[in-house]
Amino acid sequence: MGITVENVxxxxxxxxxxxxxxxxxxxxxxxxxxxxxxxxxxxxxxxIAGLEKPDSGKxxxxxxxxxxxxxQDRHVGFVFQHYALFKHLTIRKNIGFGLEIAKWKKxxxxxxxxxxxxxxxxxxxxxxxxxxxxxxxxxxxxLARSLAIEPNVLLLDEPFGALDAKVRKDLRVWLxxxxxxxxVTTVFVTHDQEEAMEVSDELVVMNHGKVEQVGSPAEIYDHxxxxxxxxxxxxxxxxxxxxxxxxxxxxxxxxxxxxxxxxDILIETVPEAASAPATLERxxxxxxxxxxxxxxxxxxxxxxxxxxxxxxxxxxxxxxRVYLKPKKxxxxxLQDA
Length: 337
Ligand SMILES: Nc1ncnc2c1ncn2[C@@H]1O[C@H](COP(=O)(O)OP(=O)(O)OP(=O)(O)O)[C@@H](O)[C@H]1O
Fold this sequence. Notes:
Subcellular location: Cell inner membrane
Organism: Stenomitos frigidus AS-A4
Domain ABC transporter: 3-233
Distance between the termini: 38 Å
Helix content: 25-40%
GO molecular function: ATP binding
Shape: elongated
Bound molecules: adenosine-5'-triphosphate
InterPro entries: AAA+_ATPase, ABC_SmlMolc_Importer, ABC_transporter-like_ATP-bd, ABC_transporter-like_CS, Mo/tungstate-bd_C_term_dom, P-loop_NTPase, Sulph_transpt1, Transp-assoc_OB_typ1
CATH topology of the largest domain: Rossmann fold
C-alpha cells in the first residue's frame, strides 16, 4: 500500500536508465535506493515523484494508480541534494510556503510551522534567513518544508550529499529518529552503502537500471544475491576459485571467482590443516580494527580485518609468514553468456 512500482522502464534516447523495475515499498518504511553513479536511482525516484513519465509500467501510491497523475496530485514531499530554500524568505516562511499555497489560515500555519521547527530541532531559528544557517540546518529546514503538507510519501535524493562527513553522519541518525516519529513512507537515494545500511529498513540495490536485490541491510550483507551486490555492499576479496586459500575448504574450483569478506578470514602464526601460507605485506591501523594486506604464495593479494585484541595476541609484524583460513566464502553460479 505504500509505493508499488510495476515493471517500470524509462529510456533517454537509446539509453535505458530504468529497465523493467518492480519494487514494493511498505507503508511507513524507510527504504534506500542504493547503487553506483548512473545506476538509475534518481530517475526511479523522479518517476515516483511524477517529475518523469515512465515509457511503460505502473506506479501506485497508497494503493492508487498514480502513473499519469501530476506531481501536485501525488502529494509527495521531495528533498534534493542542494537545498532549494527560498533565500529571500525566513525559515518560518520557507517551511510554511506550501501551506500558504494551499490557503491554510495564518494561525493554523503558525501552529504547524512551530510544530515542525520543534520536530527538526530548529526552534528559535525561525526568523533567520537560509544564509544564516549551516548546511546541515538548511537540509533540516528543507525536510520540515517537505513534511509540512503531510505528504503521502517522502522522497529524498542524496539529501546529505553536499555536507561534510561529520554532519552527514549526525544527520543520518537524526533522519532515522525523525522517521520513527513521523512514520511517513520514505525513499532515500544514496550511493553510500554505509549510509543506506545505517538509516534504512530495506535496501533496493540497483545496477545498470535494474534492481539487483531487495532486502534488509543484514539480509543483503549476509546473503548477497549476485556478485555485484557482494562486491558493492561491504569490503570483499575477489579471488579465483582455484586459489590455494580454498584448497580443502569445500569451494568448487570450477566456479570462476569466489568472494571472501576480510572479516571472514582467520589469520594464525602456525600452520593448521587447510590453512594457506601468506606473507604479511602491510598493516593499516584503522582505530579499533587492523587491516592486514597479505600475499598468498600464488601471488594473490588478500585483505584481512582483525580486531585489535586479536592483533595484539598474534603480535604481527610486516614481512612475517602467516597462515590464512577462510571461515566463510561465497561463489555464484555463473550465468550462461
Ligand atoms: N534527462 C536525462 N536525459 C538524458 N539522460 C539522462 C537524463 N536523466 C538521467 N539520464 C541518464 O540516465 C542514467 C541514470 O541516471 P540517474 O541520475 O538516474 O542515476 P543515479 O543512479 O541517480 O546516479 P547518481 O548517483 O550519479 O546521481 C545516467 O546515465 C544519466 O546520464
